[in-house]
Amino acid sequence: MKKRKNDSSLGLGKNSDSRGRESENHQMLWLSYQKALKKLSPIEAKVLDLIEQGLTSGEIADKLKKAEGTVRSHRNNICKKIGITGSNGILKWLWWAKHRKNNS
């Protein structure tokens, strides 16, 4: 019986393959992040920036001199445009993007 080379020495091991896929997935997410930002209107981009700073919808409304309902509409539009769901979706997305920027 012929001795088989270790798959990891051929670059086919579990770690090598999973890291490659993980890196590829992160690259795809980063590209989708950049595309998503281009879809936002200037006011949506401003709202997103203020969300990243930790402001609530009420605080954003005060700062932009808009109704809180308008800010919530902008938040909903941002979610639709970047393809996220859930009340914490924007925060998770922003955290990922910030983490990605800092590690690239």
Task: Walk me through the structure.
The structure is a single chain. With 104 residues, the chain is an all-alpha fold. The chain is built from five helices and no strands. The N and C termini lie far apart (46 Å). It is 71% helix and 0% strand. It has one domain (10-102): Arc Repressor Mutant, subunit A (Orthogonal Bundle), CATH 1.10.10. Mean pLDDT is 76; it is low at 2-17. The protein has helices at 14-39, 42-52, 57-64, 68-82, 89-102. α2 (42-52) packs across α4 (68-82) and α3 (57-64) packs across α4 (68-82).
Secondary structure layout:
Blueprint: H1 14-39, H2 42-52, H3 57-64, H4 68-82, H5 89-102
Number of helices: 5
Fraction of residues in H or I helices: over 70%
Determine Rg (CA atoms, Å): 20 Å
Spell out the CATH superfamily. Answer: Winged helix-like DNA-binding domain superfamily/Winged helix DNA-binding domain
